[in-house]
Amino acid sequence: MDYKIIVLDLDGTLTNRDKVITPRTKEALMKAQEAGKIVVLASGRPTAGVEPLAKELDLARFGSYILSYNGGMITNCKTGEVIFSSLLPVESNKKIMDLAKEYGVDFLTYEGEEIITNNDQCVYAHKESKINHLPLRQVDNMEEHVNFPVAKFLLLDDGDYLATVEPKVKAAMGKNFAVYRSEPYFLEVLPKGIDKAQSLERLLQHLGMTKEEMIACGDGYNDLTMIQYAGLGVAMENAVLPVRKAADYITASNNDDGVGLVVEKFMLA
């Protein structure tokens, strides 16, 4: 099969344990783009949090794409055009923040190139800031401040406690919202129907390509749908068991050039 597009989760997939792209993987991706292949960085991160890796891979020069907020936004790196965006309705903001307060958890969302939160001392908010290389800012009256549509909220706490909060928030938000944990300590609230697979389908329509021409690589629960959807679904050796079971192919771990090996085998051979 002539694979023309490769979709990459970031943390645990494209980047190693130190959150960097290994030299072999970077070289393979640059060669693939020079051969006319499209690279898509698909992450739960906000767009600004994906951009440093997009710059490192020179995605703007090659006309590749960022799929951010777990599929809530697709951006053409060359033109800066947002070709798809789905935001939470403004009237849901207060409800989500009220639920966070009711269950005694911290929360954050995004404004421009900042992460805004009710508590800048929260260890999990600092994790999100570090992952995305974005500054963290405490807003004392978040309910009043966040009077604009946002892509998602994160509710933050210890994983064991968040596991008990998750079903309650799901029930309270109802069928028009997606509520799930992307990490044990991150409970995400997004518009319904936002996941990586559904957004990739939109991107393929935009590009006039089919899913059979696409490779998708991932390691986490939020990568499951795109690995099931892609023509070639690839799990990293370090992937969670459901992702490994769903994959067509298992590559080496994110610390051992797993993505680079896939590119060499299926796109450059």
Low-confidence sequence ranges:
none
Broad CATH class of the largest domain: Alpha Beta
Per CATH, what is the topology of the largest domain?
Answer: Rossmann fold
Q: How far apart lie the N and C ends?
A: 11 Å
Count of DSSP helices?
A: 11
The fraction of residues in strands falls at 15-25%
Question: How many β-strand stretches?
Answer: 14
The name of the CATH architecture of the largest domain is 3-Layer(aba) Sandwich
Specify the structural class. alpha/beta
Order of neighbouring strands in the sheet with most strands: 5-4-3-2-1-12-13-14
Helix amount, in percent?
Answer: 25-40%
Architecture overview:
The chain is of the alpha/beta class and 269 residues long. The protein folds into 2 domains: 5-85 and 194-268, 3-Layer(aba) Sandwich (Rossmann fold), CATH 3.40.50.1000; 90-191, Hypothetical Protein, Haloacid Dehalogenase-like Hydrolase, Chain: A, domain 2 (2-Layer Sandwich), CATH 3.30.1240.10. The protein has 11 helices and 14 strands. It has helices at 23-34, 47-56, 59-62, 90-102, 123-132, 142-145, 159-173, 196-207, 224-229, 241-246, 258-268; strands at 5-8, 38-42, 65-68, 73-76, 82-85, 106-111, 114-117, 136-138, 153-156, 177-183, 186-191, 214-218, 232-235, 249-250. An 8-stranded mixed β-sheet has the order 5-4-3-2-1-12-13-14, with helices on both faces. A 6-stranded mixed β-sheet has the order 8-7-6-9-11-10, with helices on both faces. The longest helix has 15 residues, at 159-173. It is globular and about 55 Å long.
